[in-house]
């Protein structure tokens, strides 16, 4: 397979019942900044987003939404987290549909998660 590198980072999504103020946005940004960090950059490669299946609410979502409410962010209806993957291929190579299916099969649990190639 022509995959030479895979980079991954969390992607956070918020469902709001109205726009956040600058202060509220700052609080939310602080809540969603955790774990090790790297220098800001623009990842490149084939984009694959893995999220909980539509219509489900993950345990992470339930807990993080509760935390947001406890921090005074009542405009937040729901928070959710996915994993954004960026796949780098050998020069001038593209994946066939079968290869893309193989790669995404390794990156997600199809019983609990869905794969998207666009936001």
Question: Could you characterize what this model shows?
Answer:
The structure is a single chain. The protein is built from 3 helices and 4 strands, in the order βαβαβαβ. The chain is of the alpha+beta class and 119 residues long. The chain has one domain (3-36, 44-116): Mth169, Chain: A, CATH 3.30.1280.10. The protein has a 4-stranded antiparallel beta sheet. The protein is elongated. 8% of the residues are buried.
Note the main sheet: 4 strands, antiparallel
Shape summary: elongated
Averaged pLDDT, please? 93
* Number of DSSP E strands: 4
Low-confidence stretches: none
Structural class: alpha+beta
First-to-last CA distance: 26 Å
What count of helical segments does DSSP give? 3
Order of helices and strands: EHEHEHE
Q: What is the C-level CATH assignment?
A: Alpha Beta
What's the multimeric state? single chain
CATH third-tier fold name:
Mth169, Chain: A
Percentage of helical residues? 25-40%
Task: For the largest sheet, list the strands in their spatial order.
Answer: 1-3-2-4
Q: Give the amount of beta strand, in percent.
A: 25-35%
Alpha carbon gyration radius: 17 Å
CATH 4th-level superfamily: Phosphoribosylformylglycinamidine synthase subunit PurS
CATH architecture heading: 2-Layer Sandwich
Number of domains: 1
